[in-house]
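Predict structure. Chain length: 153.
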Amino acid sequence: MPRKPKTIPGPSRLSKILANLKKGPHPQLSAVTGLKLTLAFRNDHFGARHFVKEDLPRIRYANPDLNIKVTKLRKTPEERWDPEMQVELRDGTIRTVNMQGKWSSAIFEELMEMGGGDAWQKWKEDRIVAGLPITAPTPLIHPGKTGAAAVLP
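Prediction complete.
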């Protein structure tokens, strides 16, 4: 018979993932039918890559019928091209978002402005009235430093 642990176990890995998928704001994109992202495979386009890792799973969870295509291309240091996201709206128009030099939270906010609808506008109003940021920015671990050194442990 196995021993009983003396401490209460913390939340499971699955419950942490589910909590992340359900955290606010709820990314319901009612006016969007498809997303197409093009970005570098590595060593560049940091905000876009972070958006794909952190925010895109939440968007997929909230919008299971949304057509999402992510293209990660190899990029040499000599090449100069910007990451972009093409947003296809319900009315058939396609808007292009340049993601170069933007934080993932800024990309998320720009996407929600295009297709978030009334729920997104209500979320923004509530956050502004409460004096809180619209989306939670990445906290700085080392406030005296800049760039990746400020965010990485």
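Summary: The helical segments are 13-22, 46-54, 56-62, 104-115, 117-130, 148-151.
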